[in-house]
Amino acid sequence: MESVTLTSIQAARARIGDAIYVSPCQLSHQLSELTGLPLHLKLENLQLTGSFKERGALNKLLTLGKVERDRGVIAASAGNHAQGVAFHASSLGIRAQIVMPLATPQIKVAATRSFGAEVILHGASYEEACEEALRRRIEEGRTFIHPFDDAEVISGQGTIGLELLEQVPDIEAVVVPIGGGGLIAGVACALKETNPKIRVVGVEPEKLPSMLRAREVGAPVTIAAEATIADGIAVRRAGDLTLPLVSRYVDEIVTVDDEEIASAILLLLEQEKTLAEGAGAAALAAVVQSKTNLRHRRIVVLVSGGNIDVTLLAKIIERGLVKDGRLFRVRVYLQDRPGALHTLTQVLASQRANIVETVHNRAYYGVSLSETAIDVTLETRGASHIAAISHSLREAGFRFERIQ
Question: Could you give the residue numbers annotated as active site?
Answer without folding.
Answer: 53, 304
